[in-house]
Amino acid sequence: MGKMVAAANDRLYNNGAVCGRCYAVKCAGAANGGGGNPCTGASVTVKMVDNCASSDGCTSTIDLSREAFAKIANLDAGVIKITYNPTGYVIVK
Protein backbone atom coordinates (compact mmCIF):
# COMPACT_ATOMS: atom_id res chain seq x y z
CA MET A 1 0.00 0.00 0.00
CA GLY A 2 2.85 2.42 0.69
CA LYS A 3 2.78 5.78 2.35
CA MET A 4 -0.42 7.64 1.53
CA VAL A 5 0.76 11.05 2.70
CA ALA A 6 0.95 14.56 1.32
CA ALA A 7 2.26 18.07 1.94
CA ALA A 8 0.00 21.12 1.72
CA ASN A 9 0.82 24.52 0.25
CA ASP A 10 1.12 27.51 2.58
CA ARG A 11 -2.56 28.52 2.32
CA LEU A 12 -3.96 25.03 2.93
CA TYR A 13 -1.29 24.22 5.54
CA ASN A 14 -2.47 27.21 7.61
CA ASN A 15 0.44 27.15 10.08
CA GLY A 16 0.02 23.41 10.65
CA ALA A 17 -3.75 23.36 11.11
CA VAL A 18 -4.13 20.54 8.54
CA CYS A 19 -1.39 18.28 9.95
CA GLY A 20 -2.85 14.86 10.69
CA ARG A 21 -6.04 15.55 8.74
CA CYS A 22 -7.06 13.29 5.89
CA TYR A 23 -8.09 14.41 2.42
CA ALA A 24 -9.68 12.49 -0.45
CA VAL A 25 -7.77 13.37 -3.62
CA LYS A 26 -8.70 12.57 -7.22
CA CYS A 27 -6.96 13.32 -10.51
CA ALA A 28 -8.86 15.85 -12.64
CA GLY A 29 -6.67 15.80 -15.75
CA ALA A 30 -3.32 16.77 -17.17
CA ALA A 31 -1.84 19.99 -15.80
CA ASN A 32 -0.31 20.95 -19.12
CA GLY A 33 -3.47 20.33 -21.15
CA GLY A 34 -1.79 17.88 -23.50
CA GLY A 35 -0.58 14.32 -23.68
CA GLY A 36 -3.88 12.59 -23.04
CA ASN A 37 -5.54 11.76 -19.76
CA PRO A 38 -3.09 10.63 -17.03
CA CYS A 39 -5.87 9.78 -14.55
CA THR A 40 -6.56 6.22 -13.39
CA GLY A 41 -10.10 7.03 -12.24
CA ALA A 42 -9.27 6.07 -8.65
CA SER A 43 -9.18 8.34 -5.65
CA VAL A 44 -6.84 8.17 -2.69
CA THR A 45 -7.10 9.26 0.93
CA VAL A 46 -3.93 10.92 2.17
CA LYS A 47 -2.79 12.20 5.54
CA MET A 48 -1.33 15.71 5.54
CA VAL A 49 2.07 15.49 7.19
CA ASP A 50 4.08 18.48 6.00
CA ASN A 51 4.17 21.93 4.41
CA CYS A 52 5.04 22.38 0.73
CA ALA A 53 6.28 25.94 1.14
CA SER A 54 6.22 28.44 -1.70
CA SER A 55 9.54 29.79 -0.38
CA ASP A 56 11.00 26.35 -1.22
CA GLY A 57 9.67 26.57 -4.78
CA CYS A 58 6.48 24.56 -4.24
CA THR A 59 3.87 25.62 -6.78
CA SER A 60 1.35 22.85 -6.04
CA THR A 61 -1.68 22.92 -3.77
CA ILE A 62 -0.93 19.41 -2.55
CA ASP A 63 2.30 17.48 -3.08
CA LEU A 64 1.46 13.77 -2.99
CA SER A 65 3.80 10.96 -2.03
CA ARG A 66 4.88 8.83 -4.99
CA GLU A 67 2.64 5.98 -3.82
CA ALA A 68 -0.43 8.20 -3.53
CA PHE A 69 0.22 9.84 -6.92
CA ALA A 70 0.60 6.43 -8.61
CA LYS A 71 -2.81 5.37 -7.32
CA ILE A 72 -4.62 8.25 -9.06
CA ALA A 73 -2.43 8.99 -12.11
CA ASN A 74 0.35 7.77 -14.36
CA LEU A 75 3.67 8.67 -12.72
CA ASP A 76 4.99 9.91 -16.08
CA ALA A 77 2.54 12.83 -15.89
CA GLY A 78 4.57 14.39 -13.07
CA VAL A 79 2.08 17.20 -12.38
CA ILE A 80 -1.71 16.84 -12.59
CA LYS A 81 -4.85 18.80 -11.81
CA ILE A 82 -6.67 17.48 -8.75
CA THR A 83 -9.84 17.79 -6.76
CA TYR A 84 -9.64 17.33 -3.01
CA ASN A 85 -11.91 17.38 0.00
CA PRO A 86 -11.35 16.85 3.72
CA THR A 87 -12.65 13.48 4.89
CA GLY A 88 -13.36 14.50 8.46
CA TYR A 89 -10.78 12.04 9.76
CA VAL A 90 -7.87 13.15 11.91
CA ILE A 91 -5.08 10.66 12.53
CA VAL A 92 -3.43 11.06 15.92
CA LYS A 93 -0.28 9.25 16.97
UniProtKB/TrEMBL annotation:
The keyword Signal applies. This is Expansin-like EG45 domain-containing protein. SMART domains: DPBB_1. It is found in: Secreted. The lineage of its organism: Eukaryota, Viridiplantae, Streptophyta, Embryophyta, Tracheophyta. Gene3D superfamilies: RlpA-like domain. InterPro entries: EGC1/2, Expansin/allergen_DPBB_dom, RlpA-like_DPBB, RlpA-like_sf. Pfam families: DPBB_1. Keywords: Secreted, Signal. Its main location: secreted. Residues 1-84 form the Expansin-like EG45 domain. It comes from Oryza punctata (Red rice). GO terms for cellular component: apoplast. GO terms for biological process: systemic acquired resistance.
